[in-house]
Amino acid sequence: MKRGRGRTSRIRRQKLFRSSVSRGVNESCKPEFIEFKKWLKDRKFEDTNLIPACFPGTGRGLMSKTSLQEGQMIISLPESCLLTTDTVIRSYLGTYIAKCQPPPSPLLALCTFLVSEKHAGDQSLWKPYLDILPKAYTCPVCLEPKVVNLFPEPLKAKAEEQRARVQGFFSSSRDFFSSLQPLFSEAVESIFSYSALLWAWCTVNTRAVYMKHGQRKCFSPEPDTYALAPYLDLLNHSPDVQVKAAFNEETRCYEVRTASGCRKHEQVFICYGPHDNQRLLLEYGFVSIQNPHACVYVSAGWNQLCS
Ligand SMILES: C[S@@+](CC[C@H](N)C(=O)[O-])C[C@H]1O[C@@H](n2cnc3c(N)ncnc32)[C@H](O)[C@@H]1O
18-36, pLDDT tens digit by residue? Predict the structure, then answer.
């Protein structure tokens, strides 16, 4: 028998292929991750299970250092690391939010804080987190209209709706931004530009976890359910895994437990929800190749064609 044609070498080749597909390139030595880890440690979070890595197909994500058993905690992120509307109210923006009429939405408060802290650069206490956030996003709202025109019809309509919603969000926020002028030496129009707000909106939309806060008078009545969870937000989506994720009121940590287990040196995924590819593209800017929730949208007119 020729070398490399037998069962053993076939199995070895398959294993090698599997690991080259799923194995990531460790990114924890990159300067921005070294700073980010120090920042997390100062806020009482140290990770023993995972490391940031870049994976073929899904891009940057988190890789397991050891095998993870079903039910094992994968991340327990202290409240001090979370960026919520509480963080914003406690900041220099708090008094401006309290004075603002009509009151801003919780989403606007978070986006304003992100833009303002990004503008603060080295002065920002959140710099190590801001430095690891994507510089640009791939959600349809960020794409050129000529690209959106190439989408199939139901998706194109949703993408145009999304663009109109974000543009409306920007125009209706201008008065609030103007009220913040005393905080800045530059003109607020140059800081809170459409592109800066779009970046912040995509950051919240693609990365925030669900965390319910009670209604507060200083905000408009939209639900206050967003929390940016640094580090945890490096976890990519797979429709095939199950996790339990929630804020634990006793430990005061946002906890994620795997219900699926994961082998050593493989990418650890969470599930963002049972979303089809249209929803994944609209909300998160990607599609899942083997998506069990993939579906075809059929418009009402098809009934008549079939009858
Ligand atoms: C919560 S973040 C996850 C971490 C992100 N990959 C990063 O580098 O910061 C969500 C974003 O990750 C990307 N993403 C998540 N799951 C993915 C997947 N299965 N395939 C491709 N991209 C994915 C999308 O860009 C999505 O908007």
Answer: 454 467 999 999 999 999 9
Determine the distance separating the centroid of ligand 1 and the alpha carbon of 237, expressed in angstroms: 7
Q: Of 277, 294, 287, 285, give the one whose Cα is nearest residue 140.
A: 285
Are 151 and 140 within 8 A, CB to CB? yes
- Domain with 193 in it: 85-209
User: Which of 243, 284, 287 has the most ligand 1 atoms within 8 A of CB, as the residue to mutate?
Assistant: 284
CA–CA distance, 278 with 158 (Å, rounded to integer): 9
| Residue 269 falls inside a structural domain | yes
For the Cβ of 61 lying below 6 angstroms from any atom of ligand 1, the answer is yes
Question: What is the per-residue pLDDT across 130-147, written as a single tens digit (0 to 9) for each?
Answer: 999 999 999 999 999 999
Does 175 reside within a domain?
Answer: yes
ipTM summary value: 0.99
Atom of ligand 1 nearest to the CA of 235: 3
The atom of ligand 1 lying closest to the CA of 233 is 1
Number of domains, the chain: 2
Average of per-residue pLDDT across 188-204: 98
